[in-house]
Write a structure and sequence with these properties.
10 helices; 6-stranded antiparallel beta sheet; 357 residues
């Protein structure tokens, strides 16, 4: 690594983390002023506000707006290098523009790894704590009632519960149907079902019908313990829960839900794709930022910074809007999430071909 490489890497990462501290400090001040009445009305403890909310608020929004921070950092210090004729001196000294990009992409790799680890495993836990705080002290949004639950708990075994109450861990009017080779072999119905522990359930006032060809065997009872491969928490998983799962948990959840035949998992598929696509924005924004601001322009860096903020804002907005297409089922999760990266990569390559060589 040359001295020039170290110089650019230190400038890049230093500006990136400085912009993080500056912008997130402003975001915390604005958020505190907006929610101060809610904190006061709910009598939230100061320790909970600091450690349960804002300590988790900062990494969540840091990762969300990381492309913006990368773009601003690259535009800011590269425009300054160009304005001081340092880039001209580098190119005149025999350093090609392609070689000049190496330390930039080394810095982008560091940010990519940091963003991937944070978004994949660290931030989901902090998001859960932050949302639990909001649910308790700001606005309750978690439901304690589920209705019309239907899922395949095992291959060929379909569970249906008309309504389930989380507070009492019991449901009403359930059925458990077992199929073999697409033929119904048994059907268990009950007026009430209650969760005991693990995968153990108790059913009350049940009727079991077993089918053997044209024969039918009926069994009635008041109470019976049975094993069903599902737990009550799985009835209350909403789209918002996707942000609280690690990459490993998302993969496991999607595999389980696909096996059970549960629909409406687009939000979880989209979130999983985001965990891979979002960190790559560090490379895309770096390519666009360097290509855009490497040329010395009259009037200073204001124009470049304005263009950079506009492009990064468009990227974040585009990513948000396209993700909603996947959740609504208009397009696949892969295309909705990766389309902004494809388009902005093409923009970056175009700008790179026009950058000073």
């Amino acid at each position: 690594m040359k001295r020039l490489d170290r110089y650019i890497i230190v400038k890049f990462l230093g500006t990136y983390f400085f912009s993080l501290v500056l912008i997130l400090s402003i975001a915390v001040v604005f958020d505190l002023s907006e929610k101060s009445d809610d904190f006061f009305d709910s009598q939230a403890p100061v320790s909970a506000i600091i450690f349960d909310y804002y300590v988790n608020f900062i990494p969540y929004y840091m990762n969300m707006f990381s492309p913006l921070f990368v773009f601003i950092s690259v535009i800011f210090f590269t425009s300054k290098l160009a304005g001081n004729s340092e880039i001209i001196a580098m190119l005149a000294g025999g350093v090609s523009f392609k070689r000049l990009m190496v330390p930039y992409f080394v810095s982008a790799t560091i940010i990519f790894v940091l963003s991937f680890v944070l978004g994949g495993w660290v931030i989901p836990h902090s998001t859960r704590k932050m949302l639990d705080f909001e649910n308790e002290y700001i606005k309750e949004f978690k439901s304690s009632h589920a209705s019309d639950i239907q899922m395949e708990v095992e291959p060929g075994v379909i569970l249906y519960i008309e309504s389930y109450l989380k507070e009492s861990n019991q449901g009403f009017r359930m059925s458990l149907e077992r199929f073999e080779d697409k033929s119904l072999v048994s059907r268990l119905t009950a007026e009430r079902i209650r969760w005991d522990s693990a995968y153990t359930w108790t059913i009350e006032n049940y009727l079991k019908r077993d089918f053997d060809g044209m024969r039918e065997y009926i069994t009635r009872g008041v109470k019976m313990d049975t094993t069903i491969n599902v737990q009550p928490d799985e009835f209350y998983i909403t789209a918002q829960e996707s942000e609280q799962m690690t990459i490993t948990q998302l993969r496991h959840y999607l595999a389980t839900q696909r096996r059970r035949g549960v629909g409406n998992i687009q939000a979880f598929e989209t979130e999983l794709q985001k965990r891979y696509a979002s960190p790559l924005a560090a490379f895309i924004m770096t390519l666009i930022g360097v290509s855009l601001s490497a040329r010395k322009v009259r009037g200073g860096m204001g124009k470049n910074i304005g263009i950079g903020v506009a492009l990064s804002a468009i990227y974040i907005l585009f990513s948000t809007v396209s993700s909603s297409f996947a959740v609504s089922g208009v397009m696949s999760s892969f295309m909705a999430v990766w389309m902004p990266n494809f388009i902005f990569t093409a923009i970056g390559i175009f700008l790179y071909t026009r950058a000073p060589k």
